[in-house]
Specification:
Blueprint: H1 7-32, H2 38-49, E1 54-56, H3 57-64, H4 68-80, E2 84-89, E3 92-100, H5 102-122, H6 129-153
Antiparallel strand pairs: 1-3, 2-3
Length: 154
């Protein structure tokens, strides 16, 4: 028997969904002004944080929780635009190493300050310290539950 959501739980869930949708739309529009999509940004950030600006494709996919097909298609689009390079891994002929190009680094450097300011304006600055701590705590619990579910399924 399903455990249906109570009226209050439904309100909480719908509020979260609508907040996420609105936040994604605002952030996507901001990145669009720099010629980037949210997907571009999601991949450029971990690449820029990697010590050499390179990550194995499987590690990048794990970092952003994407499947292999989605990652491959997005990387192909980004490579066409000169944002990333993909080369076979030296130690594994089946593996791919993804690297941030200078063009990718430049566009990220240009877009990041405005993106962060937008995140601050529409999200961070709307919270008290207590709300921020609560969201952080909740996010960690949800992340752990998702990882546990993935681990038990795999």
């Amino acid at each position: 028997m399903p455990r249906w959501l109570s009226e209050e739980e439904q309100k909480t869930w719908r509020s979260y969904i609508l907040m996420r949708q609105r936040l994604d739309a605002v952030l996507a529009a901001g990145l669009g002004e720099h010629g980037l999509s949210m997907a571009d940004y999601e991949l450029l950030v971990p690449l820029s944080a990697a010590p050499s600006g390179c990550l194995r494709a499987k590690d990048l996919a794990a970092e952003v929780c994407w499947d292999k097909s989605r990652l491959s298609k997005q990387l192909a689009r980004m490579a066409t635009r000169g944002l990333v390079d993909r080369v076979p891994a030296e130690d594994d002929a089946r593996g791919i190493v993804v690297s941030l190009t200078e063009a990718g680094r430049t566009i990220l450097r240009e877009a990041a300050p405005e993106h962060v300011e937008l995140v601050r304006e529409v999200f961070i600055d709307r919270m008290s310290d207590a709300e921020s701590a609560a969201i952080c705590s909740l996010a960690e619990k949800v992340k752990a539950a998702g990882e546990a579910r993935n681990d038990s399924a795999g």
